[in-house]
Design brief:
Helices cover about 45% and strands about 20% of the residues. It has about 425 residues and is an alpha/beta fold. The protein has three domains: about 5-245, 2-Layer Sandwich (BirA Bifunctional Protein, domain 2); about 255-360, no CATH class; about 380-433, no CATH class. It binds glycine (GLY).
């Protein structure tokens, strides 16, 4: 049976409320009193003071669905399941249960509540890592998973995969155990080492069943023990929807497909799938960011928003999609999600104006920039020198990341090292001034 995303939301919250978790609401995407974090990137980010003991939580067991933004994976947008904006279904124990109950709770939801095919489930656990010599392998999680899964589906990985956090530069963090589902050999790379840590897309992480937060990372780079042991667990709503709605990618779920269709419009069969996905993802993310009071600018989170919008408008231009389609898609995001996030409707007009304004300004820049780009290409054929790339950025407003996308479409190479040299020279000149 296929389950809608609104059902998934309800079932998740009911399950954890039924296990004595207090349902709390999603926080804004703008971090509250956390200068180390640009944008809320996880369910636990707004709760950091509870884990460090600076604040007392309303209850020791909490759960919610938190809107999050992560742009560190922006280059991966366009594959089956990376997103800049996503909703994290989270449950937390603040000095209450620890590894045993966290894993058992996740397993109960996976097996009995959502009915995932458990034969396709893998768990990853922290194996220890030379880079963190004082943090031992997570033998306890291995023992717990051993009672639930065959040993060949319990995979031991190092800090890159299985040490999570902190959200931001400092704060609570710890080893984690993640749950993956095998989507089938036919989606895989066929490599002999293909497994949950392979990027090929066969294995989809559906749940971080527990970050076991015992450590506090300080500005100095040192860890101290936290006063209490806590659990931070999170499952992506979009990824759950992929599996439970039996679709190929997050863009085919009921959370994104309607937005994607509005963007593609009549050009659906003539646009690269990657471009439609980038526009769909970025417009949804930008709409949520503006609703929370972020405006476009040249620094900090304002620049993150500008970059997302400009990338969406660039892909629209490259693929012949009308800018109005992006505006329509944003209105649809407001309509689809406002029952969960009322600030979308409250700020609808601001969202419309901000997107139109950025589209108009960027449209003019892009036109000028593309003209210059064509002149450069005419002259230099399949290669753009560092100096030309820098000029296109500095004088004609085409930043390197967008330039790279335009160049890639036309199979043109850019001397990025040369570009960085000219950029650094300019920085030195302005520092002198
Ligand atoms: N906070 C846990 C995670 O994002 O995976």
């Amino acid at each position: 049976m296929k389950i809608s995303s609104s059902e998934i939301r309800r079932i998740f919250l009911d399950y954890f409320a039924g296990h004595e978790h207090l349902v709390i609401s999603s926080s804004s995407l703008i971090p509250n009193e956390d200068p180390t974090l640009l944008i809320v990137n996880s369910g636990m980010a707004p709760l950091k003071p509870y884990f460090t003991g600076e604040k007392t939580p309303p209850e020791q067991r909490l759960c919610n669905i938190q809107k999050c933004v992560r742009t560190n994976d922006i280059e991966s947008i366009g594959d089956r399941h990376h997103l800049t904006f996503f909703e994290m279904m989270g449950n937390w124990s603040i000095g209450d249960y620890f590894k045993d109950e966290a894993i058992t709770l996740a397993w109960g939801a996976i097996k009995d509540v959502f009915g995932f095919d458990t034969h396709r489930i893998y768990a990853t656990v922290y194996s220890g890592d030379n880079r963190l010599p004082n943090i031992p392998p997570d033998e306890e999680s291995i023992r717990i998973w051993n009672s639930l899964l065959p040993p060949e589906r319990i995979i031991r990985l190092g800090a890159n995969s299985n040490f999570w956090g902190p959200a931001g530069e400092t704060g609570p963090c710890g080893p984690c155990t993640e749950v993956f589902i095998d989507r089938g050999e036919e989606l895989g790379c066929g490599g002999k080492d293909c497994g949950p840590d392979c990027e090929c897309g066969r294995f989809l992480e559906i749940w971080n069943a527990g970050v076991f937060m015992q450590y506090n990372l300080h500005e100095s780079g040192d860890f101290s023990e936290l006063p209490i042991k806590s659990v931070d667990a999170g499952a992506g709503l979009d990824r759950f929807s992929v599996i439970l709605q039996e679709v190929d990618s997050v863009y085919e779920t009921d959370l994104l497909k309607p937005i994607k269709d509005v963007i593609a419009g009549e050009r659906a069969n003539n646009i690269s799938e990657k471009s439609i996905r980038v526009m769909t993802d970025h417009i949804r993310c930008a709409t949520f960011m503006i609703a929370d009071g972020i405006y476009t600018g040249n620094t900090s989170r304002e620049y993150v928003l500008r970059r997302l919008l400009r990338r969406a408008f660039l892909h629209a231009d490259l693929s012949g999609v009308q800018p109005q389609n992006l505006a329509r898609a944003s209105s649809l995001v407001v309509k689809m999600f406002s029952q969960y996030y009322p600030q979308l409707t409250q700020n609808q007009r601001v969202i419309e104006v901000a997107i139109k304004k950025e589209g108009d300004t960027f449209g003019k820049t892009l036109k000028r920039g593309l003209k210059e780009f064509e002149k450069v290409v005419l002259h230099s054929k399949e290669f753009i020198s560092g100096e030309d790339a820098f000029k296109l950025h500095d004088t004609h407003g085409l930043p390197l990341d967008l330039l790279k996308e335009i160049a890639k479409e036309q199979k043109i190479k850019i001397d990025e090292e040369g570009y960085r040299f000219f950029l650094e020279e300019q920085r030195k000149r302005s520092r002198k001034k």
